[in-house]
Amino acid sequence: MKRLISRRDALRQTAGGFGALAAAYMLQQGAFGAEGGARTIYDQTPKQPHLAPKAKNVIFIYTAGGASTIDMFDPKPALAKYDGQPAPFEIKGRAINGSQVVMASPWSFKQHGQTGRPISELMPEFPKVVDEVAFIRSMTTDRIDHSTAQFTFVTGRGFTGFPAIGSWAAYGLGTENQNLPAYIALESGSATIGSRAYSSAWLPPVYNGTLMQIDPEAPMFDIRRPEDVSLDDQGRVLDAVAALNRAQMDRREVNVDYEFEARIKNYELAARMQIEAMKVADISKESEATKNMYGMDDDGSRDFGNRCLLARRLVESGVRFVQIISGGWDTHNDIGGTLPGLTHSIDKPLAGLITDLKQRGMLDDTLVVWSSEFGRLPTIQSLGNNPGRDHNPYGFNMWMAGGGVKPGVDDGMTDELGYAALPEYAVTHSHVHATILHQLGLDHKKLTYKYEGRDESLVGVNPARVVTEILA
Amino acid sequence: MPRSIVNQACRGVGVRSLLLAALISFPLNAQFFTRAPMWQHEILPVLEQNCVKCHGGEQTMAGLDLTKFDSVLQGGISGPAITPGHPEMSLLWTMIDSGKMPIGKELGAAEKQLINAWIVNGRFPSKEKLDEDRASSKITPEARAFWSFKKPIKGAPPEVQNGDQVITPIDAFVLAQLEEKGWKLQPEADRRTLIRRAYFDLIGLPPSPEEVKTFVNDQSPDAYAKLIDHLLESPHYGERWGRHWLDVGGYSDSVGDAGDAFRPVSYKYRNYVIEAFNKNKPFDQFVIEQLAGDQLVNYKPGTRPTPDQMEALTATGFTRLTADITDNQSIYQVDKWFDALQKSTETSTKAFLGLTIGCARCHDHKFDPILQADYYRLTASFHAAYDTSNWLATNLRNDPWPSRYILDMPKEESEAWIKQTEDKKERGVSGNARYFARTLALVRKQIANGVQLGSLLDYLGDAVIPKDGFTDDDLKVMYEEGGRELSNEQLYEIFPQLGREAEEIASAKEAEIEPNFVWALWDMAREPAPTYLLLRGNYLTPGPVVEPGVLAVLEDPNDPFVFPNPAEHPEWNHSGRRLTLAKWLTQPDHPLTSRVFVNRLWQFHFGEGIVTSVDDFGKMGARPTHPELLDWLAVDFVESGWDIKRMHRQIMLSAVYRQSSQEHPEQMAADPSDKLLWRKAPLRLDAEVLRDSMLSVSGTLNKQMFGEFDAIKEAEDGQYLPDEDEAPRNRRSLYLAQSRTRPVGFLHAFDMPTMTQDSVSKRFRSTRPSQALVLLNNPLVRSTSKALADRALEENRGQLDGALERVFELAYSRAATEQELAAARAVVASAEDEQQALRLFVQAMLGANDFLYSY
Lengths: 472, 855
Hints:
Helix content of chain A: 25-40%
Largest sheet of chain B: 2 strands, antiparallel
Distance between the termini of chain A: 45 Å
Number of strands of chain B: 11
Low-confidence stretches of chain A: 1-25, 30-37
Mean pLDDT of chain B: 84
Strand content of chain B: under 5%
Radius of gyration of chain A: 24 Å
Oligomer: heterodimer
Low-confidence stretches of chain B: 1-34, 126-131, 429-435, 450-469
CATH topology of chain A: Alkaline Phosphatase, subunit A
Structural class of chain A: alpha/beta
CATH architecture of chain A: 3-Layer(aba) Sandwich
Largest sheet of chain A: 9 strands, mixed
CATH class of chain A: Alpha Beta
Radius of gyration of chain B: 32 Å
Order of helices and strands of chain A: HEEEHEEEHHEEHHHHEHEEEEEEHEE
């Protein structure tokens, strides 16, 4: 790899005559119109935020499928009271094997931490960090099926075709490290909407979420030098590309053409990214204690834990927005059999992530967000031996920690069954989006992009406000 | 057929009122519904199931028709059926409440509550008329005078100083503006550049060295014109320009639902588009077929299409390109039905009118004179087919029949197929087959891993296939056999039940009839259900009924455009709405249709349109850089009979198009994005052109056209690649499976759209390190480099110099310069052997700017 670094210097000299434009990731769009012939350049160099930011980075943890927060974070004693009885008011499910019969949480809760907030026995490690988090206990969303609700939660609109929140953050702020993408997605299982959970849609593709794998040899597509290509041979290709591009510029007597220049720099950046992405994915230098802290000593939590650890390393390396997706939370049947495995897979990693960030002094400017597209109903779906719970978009929990969030706060509540958010407290996905942007120093009304004649934004025309109740 | 719809109030408003109701009282009563139940989705289904046998449809006893909102309000011979706000004064309620109606049965409590709540809280607007909308202050004379809403006029080309540069009228328009700056056109590009440009533009492939030689040596004055004609006749022209149009329509081979299933037959529409371009189908005809082919040929739903109906029916695939997730969950779908209907309308409006109307879904357009009523008037044309009160499933996976497909089979066969799917549904055979395969795989894997009996059962869960479940003996054997790999045959031996099941499934499968589908759109009824204006865009709050119509601003206020009444056309098998809309769009003097399309052609040739916002010809869109030129082209296009190939010729024969792409310091500084067209700006090749060109120069391109999509597969690192194990291989990229969530890595890196949004009329041309990584490490680049180098060496009997010359001819259409040869020698000097050196150097050539751009 050494050779690539020295080559980088050589390339830099080659390209040195073309001005100081840092053309790493870029897209030039001839945006002429009213303004004249100027070009707009979209890149990921750091941008000035609108406000003083509270957080520099975001780790957005998305448990796709609908986590049953009433069984994890938000116990409802009334569930026990009505257990096996009809609910005291009508519960709207989707009518697929639905019922009006209330099901108590099969798990017990205990109060934890200074704040004394109850956490389910499903999450034995999470109590260690519970005092760091702020719960929003009155989440609502406006779609009831996975695809539409996931689009809503990640892109602000309940259908396909809008940019994910990470793309907006990358567009608004760029990122510190030009050798890695500004927006990286990590999948431990996937969302129902697949790669659309981190798509830039019509925002310039430089802001698309880049899928990263935990394999340090091949963390990104086409980043690994093929086994049958020697380092020297790859160097020869790079040398020859540089020489051919040089020859072309000479032949055309090009003095100023940002696009050609950018393309030359692109190889340089690719070489650097090759090194940096592999370096960041290589966790072999992390201590065993650290890996264990993330649950990597356990088969059930290793996969998600590794991604949490990687998220910390990415943030450390100056990546603006990291999204971790955990799949499979759709517990329609046999919630008693399936939920424990799911919660186990994230419990220790989540506690480890927050602890680790805190120990390293990173929690103050890293906003950690945890949510699902919706919660689950207090009633039984699939009456019988293996009951589960159906989708509940009316009321559920999510939490945030770090990045200017007030530790230990609870905002809002649902009714006694955990069915619907009390209207006066209701928080929507758009409120959450506005809040995340706000912590990054972005005003959700000002962060716009012209698309199809409209100044589009993450929240669009949805009512949105910053949830100041959970902010320090 | 009436269709019962189970509705849930899941919207925010509904939730709050539900909750309030819950706090106030229990058990359920009418107050529970503080929101208004919806006529179309809650009330109508109840009436259809219980009342319309006598009151509506075939007979209207007592003069009462309960199938339509208006006629319910109107009532029958006993007077109005309802008095808004007062159930006790509403005949509909008193008859039901007293048990007098329906005769012979009684409505359930929930249904009664619904009707009661509807009368108490329902929205009964007076029917607002089109005229009132027209009077809206938005549609002012000034609004009508906006440039793109006025008819284009073909003006005389301006006088210019540099008359010697003018070849076609296009040149005069462009030169006139350049001369204002004291500039003129660049000289014509050299022949090698011209032929590459023309090849990339028209067929998306580079010329062969022989073709280059012929063109360069052709001394005839019309050599270039002949070249253009030759390319326009190439079958690959349709592949290149068909792909452009597929971008505009938003073509994808996947549905866009949960799991993003592949669409089995959408490829037929893709092939239709390719053929339409190759046949030079007049654009007006192209528009009409795609929007209303079914109505054009008066297709009768439920019948097998005749051969001469097939093309027009296939064309309507255009209206079905949107991500349609209505088959996603079988119960809660209403919001998605509206999404599909509305998205389809929006994409069509964007594609043909160049206007984005999405905002008007919820409110009058903020900037453009587009009313919310306009939006719903437009959707009304599609509503007859995308009928939200009589929805057809769109995917065969969950709800096989009836479905939004036409069966193209003899009657007996299609009937047998329908019976087969119904039987299957009943017996669950198709589900069984799927589970069976899954179970088998799981059992084998788990046994091989020595998994404990108990957890194995947990793992299998519902997937356990044998109809009566595994017996205790089975389980015992399974446990004992744990730890060793078992073949299917061995498994069958242990579990005879599994074996029998396998046999049954196999033989059932063999006897199955393979359906032949047409992916098309057709009207559900001649007189469709009413289309409501949806207040705030929310289907839960329907407003007044709207009639089908067009944008008010484009109508003559004194002579509004009226849609025909199907009642006056008894021969129609359809509502006639989409056909009317399409004919309105293709009137010769329509201000937008021709402008919008020639602007698209211009954009695909030059990289930017004359109006750069190709889908937004409204107020917030860009103004044309050359307005008189755009109008001249638009009128010329219509005058020629909407002749697309002729328009290519017009553009490509111009001096403007033939200019050199040479950078020029002064112009570059003053107009870097080439707004004034002082040069032909170099364009990075589109993703597909780049891949196809690599295959082509390496001699590995398979030019077989049409057919179904080619398979892709997921590589170890999660990247999608063309599936090399499945024939046909190495065909042009537009034949590769186009998925919204599984884009082929190479193509995605170079900005091929994934159609997460519904159409991409203008692709990005980004520069990203992921592209450099692809050019360094992607298997396609490496294999084509190798093939090209080896091919050149072989053709030159291993002589490196000759081979080098050949690769330059093949990849760059020219000889190498001294500087380039030096670069090649540097690789040869250090690499292991000449063959390896050439492979590496060729890879560099394919990754260098000379190859990546069209100049």
